[in-house]
Design a protein that fits this description.
Elements: H1 4-13, E1 21-22, E2 32-33, E3 37-38, E4 48-49, E5 53-56, E6 67-75, E7 89-93, E8 105-108, E9 112-115, E10 118-121, E11 133-134, E12 145-147, H2 155-163, E13 170-172, E14 176-181, E15 186-187, E16 198-199, H3 202-212, E17 216-219, H4 227-237, E18 242-246, H5 257-263, E19 267-271, E20 282-285, E21 297-301, H6 305-323, E22 333-338, E23 342-344, E24 350-357, E25 368-371, H7 380-385, E26 388-392, E27 397-399, E28 404-409
Parallel strand pairs: 6-7, 14-17, 14-18, 15-16, 18-21, 22-25
Antiparallel strand pairs: 1-13, 2-13, 3-12, 4-11, 5-7, 5-8, 6-10, 9-10, 19-20, 20-21, 22-28, 23-27, 24-25, 24-26, 26-28
This protein binds ligand LQZAQKY5 and molybdate ion (MOO).
Length: about 425
């Protein structure tokens, strides 16, 4: 059976960045830039006052304080100075306003006293040229490259784009992800399950995880275990960038998903991984789409809720990154030390829900991990309490407290 790393390599081999598109700034958060953004002007666009106070010639302030100067105008932000400062003169000036010609510093208003048309300046220290003033182009020069392709746009970077009028950046768009839950036993979360039924929790978990990975989720109606309605739901999902299906991928008589996908033209890449939970995971690529976009990446996640979470973190999230124009890499793990002895038994590498605790001085000061005594692949309750998954290799091993183990963090919304 395929290893996790081989399976991930196959997934990444079949994923490529979505064709870039221009989007309004407000929609670009979390997207990767697909172009170089250039400064459209110098910033600041003029020598700018950094303080509310008086624009002065420092040559006038070389003697003892207070110094009396004539105030020749008031320059507020958004106005343009009309008069140059000569010897013995100054202008009242506000933060963000352009410096008048002749002035080379600003004395803050707190160090002044008005005296009719004059002002008495009493700075506590000598005022040096450039004090309280930012020269034109200090932040950027027109034509400077500011951000390059592959840069992930966050709130601050979007603000930078706004400041240079780059209002429709070319980005790798967010992948649109269909979430299709299958199973006769499922009812929507707001319904009371009848005999033999359970609520559909997978769609909600996956919808949240897709959003955490900057995808756009589209939740399909629950597909019963019958060929026609299942085919209908899956075929619609093959129009989007990614199709996530939960349930119906193992060996049961009603596990119709792999066959139905094959009928719809999906090329299977792998089915089953040496992994617990998540063994029956299916991955394939849908037929090329009519508009020339590459085939949909199809993930048949096992129906057990925790298997779906693990499969998503290990394979779907890295694939979404590639589609979004970011580097494809295994999910990040940190190393944490076991807080207590732990025994792992099994022939598959396992991801066990666990709590992460603050660094412990007893264990070299690094983070500490406590596996949860969980009930297996359907136990969403334990995972809801966990910070992530501690990973253990296949085999029967007894680990001592303090053993370092890789820890896969669950994404948290901030
Ligand atoms: N003979 C074998 N049986 C099973 C194997 C196997 O290799 N051979 N693999 C087991 C493993 S491991 C897993 S994981 C499950 C996965 O099965 P399926 O992907 O076919 O999923 P289902 O059978 O449809 O459901 C499994 C389980 O999960 C519940 N479920 C399904 N969908 C949802 C949902 N949307 N929300 C909440 N819970 C859901 C479902 O009711 C089942 O209890 O197969 C093992 N069997
Ligand atoms: O691999 Mo299954 O996902 O153990 O429950």
């Amino acid at each position: 059976m395929l290893t996790v790393s081989d399976a991930l390599r196959l997934v990444l081999d079949h994923a490529s960045p979505l064709p870039p598109r221009r989007v309004p700034l407000a929609e670009a958060i979390g997207c990767a830039l697909a172009e170089t953004v250039l400064a459209d002007r110098d910033l600041p666009p003029f020598d700018k006052a950094l303080l509310d106070g008086f624009a002065v010639r420092t040559a006038d302030l070389s003697g003892p304080v207070p110094v009396a100067l004539e105030v020749i105008e008031e320059i507020t932000a958004g106005r343009v100075p009309t008069r140059a400062i000569g010897p013995g003169q100054c202008s009242a000036i506000m933060t963000g306003a352009p410096m008048p010609d002749g002035a080379d510093a600003v004395v803050m208003v707190e160090h002044s006293r008005r005296d009719g048309p004059r002002v008495l300046l009493c700075p506590p220290r000598p005022v040096l040229p450039d004090a309280g003033r930012l020269p034109r182009g200090r932040e950027m020069r027109q034509g400077d490259p500011l951000l390059g392709p592959g840069t992930r746009l966050d709130a601050v970077k979007l603000g930078l784009l706004a400041s240079v009028g780059w209002t429709n950046p070319l980005v790798s768009p967010r992948p649109v992800v269909t979430i299709a839950s299958t199973g006769d036993e499922l009812v929507p979360p707001d319904q009371v399950p009848g005999p033999g039924q359970i609520r559909n929790s997978n769609a909600t978990v996956l919808e949240g995880l897709v959003r955490c990975c900057s995808g756009v989720p589209e939740v399909a109606p629950i597909a019963p275990d019958r060929p026609d309605p299942l085919r209908e739901v899956l075929s619609r999902g093959l129009a989007n960038d990614v199709l996530l299906i939960t349930g119906g991928v193992s060996a049961g008589t009603l596990d119709l998903v792999p066959g139905t996908l094959a009928e719809l033209g999906m090329t299977p890449v792998f089915h089953k991984i040496r992994l617990k939970p998540g063994k029956p995971l299916l991955f394939g690529v849908g037929p090329a789409r009519p508009d020339g976009r590459p085939g949909t990446l199809v993930f048949g996640l096992p129906g057990n809720p925790v298997s779906g979470v693990v499969g998503f973190l290990l394979f779907v999230c890295p694939a979404l990154k590639v589609l979004r124009g970011l580097p494809g890499a295994p999910p990040e793990t940190i190393t944490a030390r076991l807080a207590q002895p732990f025994s792992h038994r099994g022939d598959r590498p396992s991801y066990v829900p666990a709590l992460l605790r603050d660094p412990s001085p007893d264990l070299d000061g690094g983070p500490v991990v406590s596996p949860i005594n969980w009930a297996g692949s359907a136990d969403l309750r334990s995972v809801a309490l966990a910070d992530g998954f501690a990973s253990f290799p296949a085999g029967d091993f007894d680990y001592e407290a303090g053993t370092p183990v890789p820890f896969l963090l669950l994404p948290r919304s901030q």
